[in-house]
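Dear Dr. K.,

Following up on our conversation at the group meeting, I've run the structure prediction for 11-beta-hydroxysteroid dehydrogenase-like 5 from Cucumis melo. I'm pasting the input sequence below exactly as I used it, so you can double-check it against your construct before we proceed with anything downstream. Let me know if the numbering doesn't match what you have in your notebook.
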Amino acid sequence: MEFINSFLNLVVPPASLVMLAFSWPALSFISACEWIYNSFNTEDMEDKVVIITGASSGIGEQIAYEYAKRKANLMLVARRENRLRMISENARFMGAKRVMIMAADVVKEDDCRRFVSETVQFFGRVDHLVNTASLGHTFYFEEVTDTSIFPHLMDINFWGNVYPTLVALPYLRQSNGRVIVNASVETWLPLPRMSLYSAAKAALVNFYETLRFEVKDDVGITIATHGWIGSEMTRGKFMVEEGAEMQRKEEREVHVTGGPVEEFAKLIVSGACRGNIYVKYPSWYDVFLLYRMFAPNVLNWTFRLLLSANGSRRTSLVGTGMPVYEGSVSGKPLLEGASPRRLLLPANSPQSSPQAQKLE
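The predicted structure tokens came back this morning:
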């Protein structure tokens, strides 16, 4: 058996690459034909019912507008009720038939049961469930001394998707509906300062890939993965447990060059309505997946060179036991060695520097 495995280790990878190279044109042609067919059989969302979690900003907000343009009925869920009210008015103006809003926390199963139940009672059905709430971070793992934020990261990025799906699944089966998941390219593309976020998103994708086989054709699942896009998260604005808007000082003056959130949201909704199982933005990121599978050393060397050329490390030092500086001329230590949860301050505070960032 050991000899057979050794032989296959030598033969299978290059043989697979050769087969992929020869079959790529045919596979691309089949994919193009499938895309054209699905384009003519797009799901009509008029009067359909869509639940969107994390709808108070960023990707969730733009997805709400895209469904509104398709005349859907919306249930918008997030913790910032004041933001939801404004977004619901915008959605109505853009064409949404009826819009409900509910302040809820997706990591609490009871909250999830509440907003799904309210949706079914009011609209009578659920057709699409869109999970967009995420929690990111910008710290190097070895610098962390306060680990209290770790479970919170996993709760939002994993359970914050699983709980709404669990509760809504029976109703989605009845309507032959669809679950749309906002994942990330970090599920398989290694990036620094995002270790826990990447792990949670990888677990999330594996969960939905498995669920896809369990629900078979009764419920569709669309997994959306994106690279760096311009959103509240990349601009340094975040949400924490109390629901206050946050912004790190050092990121308030950074010019964001990520791709537009609006374009990604449009791709997600159009892909979901076509019945696509994956939506990728931008799609050329897929080439890195091939390198990771067949030539991981090349990918590792490339990233090491890029990171070494990027200069000194910049990170959020809150919770790492190291002093945080205001960035003023005096350079006085502003905060030092405290818990990240005690240092989450409103955006208008000159001392705001959260270690965790809630994107809703």
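Two things stood out to me. Confidence is low (pLDDT under 50) at residues 230-258, 314-360. Residues 179 and 221 are 5 Å apart (CA to CA).

Best regards,
J.T.
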